[in-house]
User: Fold this.
Amino acid sequence: MDSLHLHFDIDGSDFTSAGEAASELKRVLRQLGFPPEIIRRCAISMYEGEINMVIHANGGTVDVYIDSDEIIFELIDSGPGIADVELAMQEGYSTASQEVRDLGFGAGMGLPNMKRYTDQIIVDSIVGVGTAVFMSIKLE
Amino acid sequence: MKHSVTLDKEKCKGCTTCMKHCPTEAIRVRRGRAHIIQDRCIDCGQCIRVCPHHAKKAICDPFDRIEDYKFTVAMPAPSFYGQFSNLDDVNIVLQALLDIGFDAVFEVSRAAEIISDITRKTYDEETEKRTGPIISSACPATVRLICMRFPKLIPNLHKMIAPVELAAMRAREEAVKKSGLSPEEIGVFFITPCPAKVTADRYPLFLEERVIDGTFSMADIYKRVLGPMKKVKEPRQISKSGIMGIGWARVGGESSALLKEHHLAVDGIENVIDILEDVENGLLPEVEFLELNACTQGCVGGCLTVENPYTAKSRIRKLMKYLPVSKNKAEPEDAEAILALAKKVPEYVPVWQLSEDREDAMRIFMEIADLRRRLPGLDCGSCGAPSCRSFAEDVATNFASEEDCIFHMRERMQYMAGGGDADEYLPPPFRRTDGEESDEKDNDHDDFG
Ligand SMILES: Nc1ncnc2c1ncn2[C@@H]1O[C@H](COP(=O)(O)OP(=O)(O)OP(=O)(O)O)[C@@H](O)[C@H]1O
Ligand code: SF4
Ligand SMILES: [Mg+2]
Assistant:
């Protein structure tokens, strides 16, 4: 199987569109016939990453590569960056505003869930420059 | 005024439970039966919830009304999704609605997202225009309450049609396209959590004409879809709404979808009344948007739902997880057209006005004050009115006679019996003395054994 590439621009100025890319990805994966459990893991990881880019970084891009043995996600933004990645990866840590908390975000569970549902995650961030998140989900 | 809460005369035992719980003092008990003072009822459904004999009911449409139309659309309120245990996909519910006989579904949450979008866009302009908060008009029971009790706040009501009304219009358009039928051949039906919305669908608050063909009680449809839901294996993607729309099911949903800081969301009719008093008194100047829900926890607490409001609310939260934030928006020209639909403004209904004539009203007022001094202030309900104060009002406006108070009755009997103590004519809770017993013994609980 050839590698399939999907590209998403995440609009950071329109919070109400957040999460749409993840639902689009879900639709594609379903069409490609992936097992429900893999779809679920991909959808959640992508969703959390996408929402983070909108809430914390004013948008960015997501590239998804679907290979025969793994699905790779590259999430890149040029937002404020994360000063302490290790801290950000901890359950419950959040800097989300009250307005988005009212909608049910800001539990500080996004990054921990991304870690939990993927086989590999690397968060690279430079304060003032941006954040890059690489994730991989293995297919067997 | 028009209502959808009524009494089943056969079942009512005249127990006064509903009378005591009615937030607008709209119920009286006469000759062993409850009576609803039509003008005062806001259709909040509190009496339906508390009646131990299930004698209070909401008039919804019978399900076979769908047979009157060639093509039917179900419009579930978002609170419907909170009724089912272990539900992880709203599409299962929507599929089951199709399986029980509807030809299409149109989620009210879709329309709610459009309305949230419009409200977000006009928010700054609206808040600047008025003194005091924008008051949500989504709960018809609270709108009615404001119209009769807080007329000063009527201009603050959000001038906006109900999400279900927008849903009905869109659903009909979609159905016409899909079926090729004419609009009259299409029946759009709302699955409602409460009688207040039944009334508002029949007699719209802001729209000039009714756009919904019928309303089904959520409890009724719940029973019908349960079986079919179990048979849905792989649901299709039918749902077209996200977190913001489905969130309207519970308190805070409508206001959090505005993405603004200064909103306040209130639930439970007593809390709503308290907050409105505060707003009327200018106590909450920082609030820009006020969301009011007559029911506990919002519409998930409506009296036609089946599940406990707290359980339903937590299920809604679970269902919202991993949904896109919103899936529906209003194009600028759409927004204008939708705003223009809210032509009517609800009017002040002066149900508590004692008389149209000011002097007459003053006279009655004095009479009430006078009567109240003569009443014991026990609010015992034996007279068939919820409180001594409302009884005094009833007497002064010739809806009751002072003699209906058992304490006055006691005095009369005393007189007829030729003096002596008439305490014995009173039920035990109201007796001043208890025969020969001493005060000490009064405190002895074992006496009852
Ligand atoms: N792309 C990003 N750019 C800048 N900061 C980020 C980014 N992603 C995450 N963060 C920071 O890491 C914190 C933790 O992120 P995480 O996703 O775990 O929680 P959250 O987004 O705050 O809440 P939740 O995801 O539970 O709604 C965030 O509060 C934010 O401070
Ligand atoms: S809160 Fe919702 S369910 Fe309750 S009366 Fe108001 S509109 Fe109806
Ligand atoms: Mg997050």
